[in-house]
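R.M. (postdoc): so does anyone remember the format we settled on? I'll just put the structure tokens first.
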């Protein structure tokens, strides 16, 4: 059975990077809750947030990264424990917002164990502020199957690109993308480049959109009483299924 401790072990964190401190909710409320509703979510939904590690050049021997878009001087690893019926997706976003460094976030709650990443960049409207750059990527872990075992093995710091901290974090992101793809293909494999990760993410986005469309058409066909219209819907459904199969073949390639 998967748990947060097993994932933390898989990261292979050096001892001198470990922090192991509880993060007070006051920090989350001050830094990550833009509205009164968000403050309530944090107060009512988070049982505890633990700061596991701080990865810096001095303890992982990986240089900082700086350009006009972002500065990765440190990476954080944390574990959040959520209370029952917490609004998981929103709380994940709020925690990522509250921590000023790119964060590898483990979450334990109603949905099992989640692993979450989100790139960050400088705010374009407020000097000195850091904001999320793109979506908060999330994967649920817990089945303990072969692809999850391969994912955990690929997470180790020793297996990441050590060019700089941005490349290291992007390596984790690529491994998460590989896990999402492997759930469809049954084969876990990491892309050889950032461009490969981007291409794979686009295929996964298309696949997700088609799955949603397929569900809607299937529900519509099940309710349709006119034979001709039901035949039309089934033909469209078959077309989407073929398109989904083609996307899986692309992921395998």
């Amino acid at each position: 059975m998967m748990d947060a401790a097993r994932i933390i072990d898989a990261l292979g964190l050096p001892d001198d990077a470990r922090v192991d401190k509880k993060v007070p909710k006051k920090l989350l409320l001050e830094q990550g809750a833009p509205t009164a509703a968000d403050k309530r979510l944090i107060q009512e939904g988070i049982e505890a947030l633990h700061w596991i590690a701080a990865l810096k050049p001095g303890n992982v021997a990986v240089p900082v990264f700086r350009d006009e878009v972002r500065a990765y001087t440190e990476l954080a690893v944390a574990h959040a424990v959520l209370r029952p019926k917490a609004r998981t997706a929103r709380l994940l976003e709020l925690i990522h917002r509250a921590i000023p460094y790119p964060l590898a976030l483990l979450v334990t709650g109603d949905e099992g164990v989640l692993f979450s990443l989100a790139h960050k960049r400088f705010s374009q409207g407020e000097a000195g502020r850091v904001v999320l750059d793109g979506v908060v990527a999330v994967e649920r872990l817990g089945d303990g199957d072969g692809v999850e075992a391969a994912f955990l093995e690929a997470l180790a710091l020793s297996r990441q690109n050590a060019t700089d901290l941005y490349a290291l974090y992007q390596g984790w992101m690529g491994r998460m993308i590989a896990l999402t793809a492997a759930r469809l293909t049954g084969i876990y494999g990491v892309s050889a480049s950032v461009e490969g990760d981007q291409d794979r993410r686009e295929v996964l986005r298309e696949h997700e959109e088609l799955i949603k469309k397929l569900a809607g058409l299937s529900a519509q066909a099940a309710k349709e009483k006119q034979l001709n219209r039901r035949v039309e819907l089934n033909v469209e459904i078959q077309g989407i299924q073929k398109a989904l199969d083609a996307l899986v073949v692309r992921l395998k390639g």
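R.M.: ...and that's the designed sequence above, right after the tokens. Also worth knowing: Strands lie at 18-22, 46-55, 65-66, 71-72, 75-82, 103-109, 112-117, 120-122, 130-132, 137-141. The longest strand covers residues 46-55.
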